[in-house]
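User:
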Amino acid sequence: MHRPVLVREVLAALALKPGVTVIDGTVGAGGHAAKIAAAVGPSGRVVGVDRDSLMLRHAAEALASYPWATVHQASHSELRTALDDAGVDRADAVLLDLGLSSDQLADETRGFAFQLGDGRGGGPLDLRFDVRHGRPAADLLVEADEAELTRLFTEYGEHPRAAAIAAEIVRRRDVAPIRFADELAALVEAVAPAGGGSHPATRIFQALRIAVNDELGHVERTLADVLPAVLKPGGRAAILTFHSLEDRLVKRAFVEANGWRPLAKKPVTATPSETRLNPRARSAKLRAALRTTA
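Assistant: Predicted structure:
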């Protein structure tokens, strides 16, 4: 079951009150959105957006008691279209939770669940949030040359054995392409054995997921163009990140771009008690800022 992270901190950063309009641009399973909907009440509006149709089904169930909350399939970089569909001009607050939901991690049909540990193997190596667009990760592993794979694993996964893993993938695909999540996980573990902590393939899967979903491109477009256009002056944006690549983009946008006033110098992180209850919160960072111009 998905447990949203930093709920109290997110609600405080958004400064919610009855009657306001809030966008949850990565609604996921609806955990944050349900809390937001309860806070803004029937006189408010909540517009939930997600690229993943599976997550939208979960969100619709979580928000069933709040008819003033609606869900729409789109990327957060397409918020304008989602707001038009919802009949909303601009919002008082926006939340983006850029992490992978535990419900997605449990989905064996797209390869997110390479550590199921129950013999199911993690399923086809797809990794797309929206299977209607883009190419599966398995196709990327077949089509990209060794240099490109090394770059992806280095830049998006920050993996110390990126070159060795890329070389082994190219060697293996000459015999048979890698099509399933457990195959890739086993290959990475053979090249870079576990040394404690997370599975050695975690960063490789992260890199492929970022690549096939153009995650950083969507974040950059949202920060530069979308949030300024959909937030009212004085509105607040709160963004949860789970790895340094996204956090750097958010920090740079809030600190260096015109029209933002950060609400704190440093990101908010989870308390020890929350991380004990919800290990996903361990890597979460929350940054929030006030929109100071139109």
